[in-house]
Write a structure and sequence with these properties.
heterodimer, A: alpha/beta, Rossmann fold, 5-stranded parallel sheet, two-stranded antiparallel ribbon, 9 helices, B: alpha/beta, 2 domains, 7-stranded mixed sheet, 5-stranded mixed sheet, 12 helices, about 35% helix
Chain lengths: ~220, ~300
């Protein structure tokens, strides 16, 4: 939400000069749908069609949804498309910016590092990668599965301007997004998996499980 | 074919600013004229084909027509999922150019041979697949397809083997090109520059008057043309430097079966396994029964 509210210019989903946002960690699509709803791009009816038969709002985001330019879901794809979108903006002498949101587990994918090298080589300063670093991936903790740390140092070594922030602190995120530079920009956003819901924090099962009615009410209460 | 390809791109790029070239660090002695003339529109993406296809997807979404170039297996199989989830899923005009059809990279060995790319890519909906047989057809195929709305895969021959007799550079998407008119009972259909062997075999057969067809538009398939050409055929002989599964032997069989044509399909395709031995392109053709003498013997055995 910070990205949309405080950084991206999205006058309309069709405007050619709109900034591009790519949810490379496509499994977080529900958060993107909610944001698009709060921004008035999706209606309540569209939002409530989530996972209904025949809906456009599935588990992963589809480009047929207003406000979504790139279909994602397969990890390691988004940053490459983002680099292309950023290069296109430069070739077209446009002020468009591109933001790709990745996860730390996603950085297991070799193609992410290909894209990092490419963006640095071409000094794509209009490209920002946010890495949601919650230390958790599908079947274990990132450091136990295929360690991607020290994440910030690695992105820096690959030629990016790196900032590390508390991913739950909107002001820190906003400041990091707004910093201008000569090189592509990486924001390592340190987050807690399941933040704000006591029984979810750091618990891998919540990558998969639905909530019971009781759990749902408790979660609502806890996040306020 | 590569020179004809680059020359065609130069002409188009001079008239249309949307055309870009990305290469996976290949094209020495091929791309220099383009890189010199349009330096900002020529991008060496390095030896990183997945990223190259992903970048091309982002460029195409913003209105460009990017041509991405590498040796065929590295252009097609390595980034296959990026092709599927990128240009295919988003229906964008990315052009994947694989250089080296079949065994064109002879001595370089199995890693460099493109013998499954067509079959794999035929599964991708909305992808046009173009396999020119000579330099002249390369030129007309590029000029005919560079601006089509969806994605295109081009399989380009590496070395020039001269023009296919009777082809005169003809190409149209979704059409088959007859290069030799025979009695219609034996029809040879060939894909890529191995069409030279098909034409030579037809000339050598003498008493069997073969029709020879070049299939350069593999997708969309020239189904109506093939059905018409095979209407009197007893055997359809497919000749391809590709495995039997998924190539034009499969394609022609699909058309014969679905149209209930009364003809048998004889597939001349890559048939031997891999034992580590390598040789020239001609060596491979002979080894897999795809040289003109082998095709002649096969037709004499199959058509009595």
């Amino acid at each position: 939400m910070a990205i949309y509210d405080r950084f991206l210019s999205l006058t309309s989903p069709q405007a050619p000069e709109r900034d591009r946002f790519i949810l490379s960690k496509g499994h977080a699509a529900l958060a993107l749908y909610s944001t698009l709803y709060l921004k008035g791009v999706l209606s309540a009816e569209q939002l409530n069609s989530f996972l209904e038969p025949g809906t456009l709002l599935g588990v992963h985001p589809e480009r047929q949804i207003p406000g979504i330019d790139f279909t994602t879901g397969s990890l390691g794809h988004g940053l490459s498309m983002g680099a292309g979108a950023a290069l296109a903006a430069r070739l077209q002498e446009s002020q468009r910016r591109v933001v790709a949101l990745l996860s730390d587990g996603e950085c297991n994918e070799g193609s992410v590092w290909e894209a990092m090298m490419f963006a640095a080589q071409h000094r794509l300063a209009n490209l920002t990668a946010i890495v949601d670093a919650n230390g958790q991936q599908a079947f274990g903790r990132t450091r136990d599965v295929l360690n991607t740390e020290p994440l910030g140092d690695r992105w820096k070594l690959f030629g990016w301007d790196v900032q590390e922030v508390d991913g739950h602190d909107l002001d820190q995120l906003t400041n990091a997004l707004q910093r201008e530079g000569e090189r592509p920009k990486a924001i390592v956003a340190r987050t807690v998996f399941g933040k704000g819901v006591s029984y979810m924090e750091g618990q891998i099962a919540w990558n998969y499980l639905p909530m019971t009615e009781v759990q749902y009410r408790q979660a609502l209460q806890e996040v306020g | 074919m590569r020179q004809a390809f680059v020359q065609s791109l130069l002409e188009i790029a001079a008239q249309d600013g949307r055309l870009l070239v990305l290469t996976g660090d290949l094209g020495f002695m091929v791309f220099e004229p383009f890189a010199d003339r349009f330096p900002a529109r020529f991008i060496n993406a390095g030896v990183a084909e997945q990223n190259m296809v992903g970048v091309a997807t982002g460029l195409a979404e913003a209105g460009y027509i990017p041509f991405v170039y590498s040796i065929a297996p590295f252009a097609s199989l390595r980034p296959l999922e990026f092709i599927r989830n990128g240009p295919i899923l988003h229906n964008l005009p990315v052009r994947i150019v694989g250089v080296g059809t079949g065994f064109d990279y002879g001595h370089a060995g199995f890693t460099h041979h493109a013998i499954e790319d067509i079959g794999v890519l035929r599964t991708q909906r909305g992808l046009s697949i173009v396999v020119p047989a000579d330099a002249e057809q390369t030129r007309s195929a590029i000029l005919a397809t560079w601006n089509t709305p969806g994605p295109v895969y081009y399989s380009l021959g590496k070395a020039g083997r001269g023009p296919i007799p009777g082809l005169s550079g003809r190409f149209a998407l979704g059409r088959a090109e007859i290069v030799r008119v025979g009695s219609g009972e034996v029809v040879i259909l060939a894909m890529g520059s191995v069409a030279h062997e098909a034409v030579a075999a037809a000339e050598a057969l003498g008493r069997i008057d073969c029709t020879v067809v070049v299939l350069a538009s593999v997708a969309p398939p020239p189904s109506d043309d093939i059905a018409r050409i095979l209407s009197k055929a007893q055997i359809a002989v497919t000749v391809e430097t590709h495995v039997a599964v998924g190539g034009i032997g499969s394609l022609v069989s699909e058309i014969v079966a679905s149209r209930a044509l009364r003809c048998r399909v004889v597939s001349c395709a890559v048939r031997e396994g891999w034992d580590g031995r390598s040789g020239s392109t001609e060596w491979y053709l002979a080894r897999h029964g795809l040289d003109r003498q082998s095709v002649v013997r096969r037709i004499e055995a199959e058509y009595r």
